[in-house]
Specification:
By secondary structure, the protein is of the alpha/beta class. The chain folds into two domains: 189 residues, Aspartate Aminotransferase, domain 1; 253 residues, Aspartate Aminotransferase, domain 2, CATH 3.40.640. Helix content is 42%, strand content 13%. It is built from 18 helices and 14 strands. Helix 11 links the parallel strand 8 and strand 9. Helix 4 runs antiparallel to helix 14. The longest helix has 22 residues. It is globular and about 70 Å long.
């Protein structure tokens, strides 16, 4: 028996009619996978699509429906799906071996490219994911400073390990999430971002802080933007106080610019973490930064200082397939300035989507930076003019703290029924392969979706 409940929504009914193959796969998946999915961001009620293939800025589900894709592999696919040069590099490496259990030339070249492109990268250590990089970076900061506390910011996401679980997607009051002991959570000091002054004061008055960790885009790749001057103020006070400035560039790295947000902002952290684009769309992450901090992992440096070395094994660190994809992708990104190409397209897309809201008198907002875009669906009924929308005026509680799950689900399903797939923020990532045709299709999809939402009384005209 199906677990999908009946609905009176034409949007949901149309979606289900178009995606019967995905619905059937969901029925199989829910028997063996929690919620029938393998990543929380893929959750959608009644079910998410199952994709069969992807190329460039498009993907196709098991029912044959074609989508303009703004999921972008959760932000990993800046080059677009199945880039020929990346595919060739990975196929070539497959014939040579997938795991040597030894060092190899590709990992050296990969590290050289990261150090060439990322301003803070004097040395780099590869991991298998962004969460692993986050975990290692915190350990490095604590070992380097000899201090325990980590300052983080409400709503900023740094992976799912115990040190960063509270305050990222829930438990914004600093209480522990299920399975994490409160004593671990208490090693974090959660701060707001609407005003940097309290954080500056905190750092100036406490001596137990190892690092300040943050997304330079603001929470969730810019869903809650940072006020002007915020990052520079953090840089100034951490430098003054000897606190490690730890920039989470898992999403912004190589996307905000070829050298990440730190290059775009002109502000260099002590440490940064990278993932997604850094591995060319394959699994991989990295910690990069000052030599003396990364030397906490170095055998010779630790022996010379007569200190315990931080252990860091990892079966898939810098595995040859990811390294092959990464070297190819980062070389292309450097030589063809693909980040800037995606940034230009995203700016055009945001302008076009904003115009739809203006013409349709929908009191929502379109915003974002770099090659990201976000839709503010106004779940709390604020007085919003889409032509002048400023997310900084709303703050965390209304931008990310307020839940709009059912409405966001309908927005996503409405867009998918018109051939566009976005993430659940709602929003998405633009690749270097998106162009005018994708913008045109997305504009049409948003227009039809907001009209359908009006018909279901989910949206009231401004």
């Amino acid at each position: 028996m199906s677990s999908v409940a009946p609905t009176n929504s034409a949007i949901v009914t149309d979606y289900k009619a178009r995606t019967q193959g995905s619905g059937a796969l969901f029925e199989r998946a829910r028997k063996v996978l929690p919620s029938g999915i393998t990543h929380d961001a893929r959750y959608l009620d009644p079910y998410s699509i199952h994709v069969a293939k992807a190329k460039g800025p498009r993907k196709w589900d098991v029912d044959g429906n074609e989508y303009v894709d703004y999921f972008g592999g959760h932000g990993a696919m800046l080059l677009g799906h199945s880039h020929p040069a990346v595919i060739d590099a990975v196929k070539r490496q497959m014939d040579l071996g997938t795991h040597y259990g030894s060092s190899h030339e590709l990992e050296v070249r990969w590290a050289e490219l990261v150090c060439e492109l990322i301003p803070s990268a004097e040395k780099v250590r590869f991991t298998a994911s962004g969460t692993e990089a986050s975990h290692m970076a915190i350990r490095l900061a604590r070992a380097y400073t000899g201090k325990d506390k980590i300052v983080r910011f409400i709503g900023h996401f740094h992976g799912w390990h115990d040190n960063v679980a509270a305050g990222a997607t829930s438990n914004y009051d600093g209480s522990s999430v299920p399975g994490v002991v409160q004593s671990v959570t208490d090693l974090t000091i959660l701060m707001p971002t609407d005003d940097v002054a309290p954080t500056v004061k905190l750092l100036e008055t406490r001596d137990d802080i190892a690092a300040v960790m943050f997304e330079p885009s603001g929470a969730s790749w810019g869903q809650v933007p940072l006020p002007p001057g915020f990052v520079q103020a953090i840089r100034d006070v951490t430098a003054k106080r000897g606190v490690v400035m730890l920039m989470d560039e898992v999403i912004t790295g190589f996307r905000w610019s070829s050298g990440g947000a730190q290059k775009a902002l002109g502000i260099t952290p002590d440490l940064c973490i990278l993932a997604k684009i850094v591995a060319g769309g394959l699994p991989g992450g990295a910690v990069a930064g000052k030599r003396e901090i990364l030397d906490q992992i170095d055998h010779a440096a630790s022996a010379a200082k007569k200190r315990d070395k931080i252990a860091h094994p990892g079966t898939y660190n810098a595995n040859p397939l990811s390294a092959a994809a990464a070297v190819t992708a980062l070389s292309l990104l450097r030589d063809e300035d693909l980040a800037e190409k995606a940034n230009r397209t995203a700016a055009e897309l945001r302008t076009a989507l904003r115009q739809v809201l203006i013409e349709e008198s929908v009191p929502w907002g379109i915003y974002g930076e770099s090659s990201a875009f976000l839709i503010y669906p106004n779940p709390t009924g604020e007085d919003v003019n889409p032509a002048t929308f400023d997310p900084l005026k709303l703050g965390f509680a209304k931008l990310k703290g307020a839940k709009s799950g059912a409405l966001t689900g309908k927005i996503r399903m409405g867009l998918m029924s018109h051939g566009v797939d976005i993430m659940g923020a709602p929003g998405g990532f633009v690749s270097a392969t998106h162009g005018g045709a994708e913008i045109e299709k997305t504009v049409h999809a948003l227009r039809q979706t907001v009209r359908a939402l009006k018909a279901e009384r989910e949206v009231k005209a401004a």
